[in-house]
Design brief:
Shape: globular
Strand content: 5-15%
Oligomer: single chain
Distance between the termini: 45 Å
Number of helices: 20
Strand order of the largest sheet: 3-4-5-6-7-8-9-10
Bound molecules: iron/sulfur cluster
Structural class: alpha/beta
Length: 412
Amino acid sequence: MKKDTNRTELTRRSFIKAAGLGGLGGAAMAALGAPVAALAAQDPAGAAPKAASIPRRSLGKTGVEVSALSLGGMFDTINNQLLLKQALAWGVTYWDTAEAYGNGLSEEGYGRFFSRNPDARKQIFLVTKLTPKGGNFTERLDKALQRLQTPQVDLFFIHGISGIEEMTPAVKDWAAEMKKAGKIKFFGFSTHSNMEDCLLGAAKLGWIDAAMFSYNFRLMGTPKMREAVDACVKSGVGLVAMKSQGGGPVKTDSEAELTMAGRFLEKGFTDKQAKMKAIWENPKIASICSQMHNLTILSANVAAARDMTALAAGDIDALTQFARESCQGYCAGCASICGAVLGENVPVNEVMRSLMYLREYGEPELARQTFAALPEDVRERLTAIDYSKAEAACPQKLAIAGLMRQASELLA
Ligand code: SF4
């Protein structure tokens, strides 16, 4: 990893204030380099601010240095133009979006920002994604570029693969063609399912530039995940973490979580910031893609990215212990395990992800959209399936039948 550069020192006091404890005060905003009054007065149509400092890391063999914190675009970017401007001003210069986010509206919001701030596009490392479902990639990519108001994205991902076999020779040829046509610079995939196998496969293929995958304090310590990350680093696949908070289909606001939160508060972090710092402490991860749909979350995450105070070994142990104690609330995305014993084509982990959006993210609309994207026949027979073998096989010991019932009741 290249050394983090342009590090901005925040005092402990400003760091914790920026975490939104008791509200986001003016002092905390000032500590982040934001002239609050001036910012509020800015016309979104004005000139884009110059990107400020935030740690940057190399994205695999692409040779591009990206901001260690990336803006996930799964929110209303059209009506949050000021937030986009502030992300850029604070140095969050890697922006992620997808056709699937708001059915193209997220891309449209980014595009509106670029058209109003022509200098901004040059500063942003822009990523979009297309799901394999829906056919005609070229036509859909052209439409995405139109919405983004740019002739090229820096990185293009096939969205949400479950196995490396989806990276077929035809996909390889298409990626090469799009690179040649100047529509994409780099190519890769994102995955929430069977992440380790997808990464191990990517490392062998040799033509995957980068991958975004679920990675957090619950997943990072397993031998297979370590092996997968190492293999990608060795073969130059750039790695971007997502789902950094390790939230699941069951809300885990237990006594154990409160104890953990208290531990980190004593040190000047929130537990949410500590979970991100645990990822950044692995230099093999280039960036964390985080949904930051308001200034409180954005500022807390920027403050965490800029603060270089290392977690102690005891802190990692505390996270690991919490992961163990709350494992029954988290779906680890190992879809091949429950899928193999179910004997039915039911993407259990996708249903779990819908519930996670509802309960952990507090995003009912997104939860419903994710659930609605499942095939109709799957949704209809969700509660009629016998999950007992899947529950016995599940390494997280999730109460799969009950959770499928809840998803059906809450999201159908
Ligand atoms: S339900 Fe269990 S086995 Fe299935 S993906 Fe989630 S954690 Fe893995």
